[in-house]
Write a structure and sequence with these properties.
alpha+beta; 3-stranded mixed sheet; 5 helices; elongated
Length: about 120
């Protein structure tokens, strides 16, 4: 049910979670008020799911009452890029130039910036 949000819309997808599909019955976990709304929308939801699957897989919906799912936790803010002062960057450049792998070279350069920032620099 990876396409659940597309099938029922973001509002209902946030309030109801598909738990399992067994013998034509799709079990949804949701709160009581949402279950009432989904019960009224059941024919449309079943039709959308079956159309997306290309076959009749869901014949009926079953509701299991539980608290609504918690919203996803936001991603942590991106750390500001750590930069070395010009003198430190000039001293580090010849050592980094000797590293053939560009990914490793970039990672070491970022690490150097963070170490410098951690010591009260930049």
């Amino acid at each position: 049910m990876a396409d659940w949000a597309e099938l029922v819309g973001p509002a209902l997808a946030a309030a109801a979670v598909p738990e399992r599909l067994s013998a034509g019955t799709l079990t949804l976990a949701c709160s009581g008020p949402v279950a009432m709304e989904l019960q009224h929308l059941a024919p449309q939801i079943v039709e959308r799911i079956n159309a997306a699957l290309g076959r009749v897989a869901v014949e009926r919906l079953r509701f299991r009452q539980r608290p609504p799912p918690s919203p996803p936790t936001p991603a942590p803010p991106a750390a500001r890029p750590a930069t070395l002062p010009p003198a430190a960057a000039a001293a580090l450049a010849p050592r980094l130039a000797a590293i053939a792998d560009p990914g490793l070279r970039a990672a070491l350069e970022r690490l150097a910036g963070r170490v410098y920032r951690g010591r009260g620099g930049a």
